[in-house]
Design brief:
445 residues; alpha/beta; 8-stranded mixed β-sheet; 11 helices; globular
């Protein structure tokens, strides 16, 4: 993406919306959302199920549970799969965490874990849309767009909403996952790359008089805008040019990773090719919120956690890439006194099943919308707390069941926004991130 492409798609939310402001006291000034694409297995991370060890390899009868979003999922016999990973209690809270996540486990007293989140669709594209926009269909604003629509920015020289995908494999539908949908274009996310040049060609050529170029462009656009007051996209485009100009100075200063101390680079895993990509983006996320960016979303590669064929191999690979950087992010925010006002969220689009097809040579797990484990940290959440109970095999949530809308409502609440009051009139009615409303996961606040 070069500078011209960037400015046309830039989030110009550096100018706060006229109605921006909190509905109640905010516990968090910023949110970092860690999107674990593909669906992390709750059974192998935060929700141990000893019963599966007794049932491992046995053929089960799913005669009462054949409702699924995956065609032919139960067309063949299936067998139970015990977790190949050991669990241990950590921290003063004594929460059980899998050996997959040794670094995150050390930070467990900062985590507010919910083990009973449900979603509506077991198809990856639809489920990722719901995780990011609240709906299983495209065309709706993303979380970050809603947050910046409600709150504006904390730094007029930076975009209010930044998305950092893994360019090995970006999310389904790409930019729609951080788009503004029917909200004004100024609230869409700005994409940054995890390289020494986060935005290509941001700096002007040495032989170009940037100020003169800018003044000429401003004059031409301003004259046209005065004649076309009914063309709001032009104003958004003009704002994006202005923001791009201001960012020429701000972005290099804020995202100067090379200037970080060696112990910080080591903590985030920047010196290890396995953790470098995700670690660099986590460090960038910390630096961005420190500079006033309101919402940052960091993605793993699309379907990276999608462990149908080999749960051990898949989850070990993805845990190695993400565990150390995530723990470093939490520790860094805490050490800097930022965690209290920064909400960190970790989740995928759904959970995974406790079983696999009986003829599967290397046991995996399929998609499961009935429960997943996710966590919040900082931002006024109750560290060391846990809510939600699943059945004895981790197939579905049975107590304190929450929905993806409730996760979104909780994020908005911690940032001072009431999800029922954060609305935008479109298509004949007031629209919301949470549709008809969500519930605050009050046990974790």
């Amino acid at each position: 993406m070069n500078r011209r492409q960037f400015t046309f798609g830039l989030s110009a939310a550096a100018l706060s919306h006229l109605e921006a402001g909190t509905h109640h006291e905010a516990k968090a000034d910023a949110c970092i959302f860690l999107a674990m694409l593909g669906g992390v297995s709750q059974i192998d991370t935060f929700d141990p199920k000893p019963k599966l060890a007794d049932l491992n390899g046995k053929i089960m009868d799913w005669s009462k549970e054949k409702k699924t979003d995956q065609p032919n999922l139960f067309a063949k016999p299936r067998k139970f799969v015990a977790s190949p990973f050991q669990f241990q209690k950590y921290g003063q809270s004594g929460r059980e965490v899998s050996e997959l996540l040794p670094h995150t486990a050390k930070m467990v007293d900062e985590l507010a874990i919910c083990r009973s989140v449900q979603s509506d669709n077991g198809n990856h594209p639809a489920a990722v849309f719901q995780m990011n926009t609240g709906f299983i269909i495209p065309g709706n604003p993303s979380m970050g767009a809603w947050v910046t629509y409600g709150l504006g920015t904390g730094n007029k020289n930076l975009p209010a909403f930044v998305a950092m995908p893994d360019f090995r494999s970006i999310p389904f539908s790409g930019a729609q996952q951080w788009g503004s949908g029917y909200l004004p274009a100024e609230f869409q996310g700005t994409v940054l790359r995890a390289t020494n040049e986060p935005i290509r060609d941001l700096a002007s050529p040495l032989n170009v008089d940037t100020e003169a170029e800018r003044e000429a462009l401003r004059g031409m656009n301003g004259n046209f805008a005065n004649l076309r007051a009914d063309y709001p996209d032009l104003r958004a485009r003009m704002d994006s040019y202005e923001l791009a100009y201001r960012m020429q100075l701000e972005v290099p200063r804020v995202l100067s990773i090379d200037a970080e101390p060696e112990h910080v680079k080591e903590a985030y895993g920047l010196n290890d090719p396995v953790t470098a990509s995700f670690g660099r983006r986590c460090l960038m996320a910390r630096k961005l919120v420190e500079a006033g960016v309101r919402f940052v979303e960091v993605f793993t590669p699309s379907q990276s956690w999608d462990a149908h064929g080999d749960i051990r191999k898949n989850h070990e690979k993805n845990a190695r890439e993400t565990d150390k950087p995530i723990a470093a992010l939490l520790a860094d925010l805490k050490q800097r006194g930022m965690l209290k006002k920064t909400l960190v969220v970790y989740m995928g689009e759904f959970g995974r099943t406790p079983d696999t097809p009986a003829d599967q040579a290397t046991p995996g797990r399929d998609h499961n919308t009935r429960c997943q484990s996710m966590w919040f940290a900082g931002g006024g959440m109750k560290g060391g707390s846990m809510i939600g109970t699943t059945d004895e095999i981790g197939h579905k949530a049975v107590e304190n069941v929450y929905h993806m809308h409730d996760v979104h409502a909780t994020i908005l609440h911690q940032m001072g926004l009431n999800d029922m009051r954060l609305t935008y009139y479109f298509g004949g009615r007031n629209r919301r991130l949470t549709d008809l409303g969500g519930r605050l996961i009050k046990e974790l606040v």
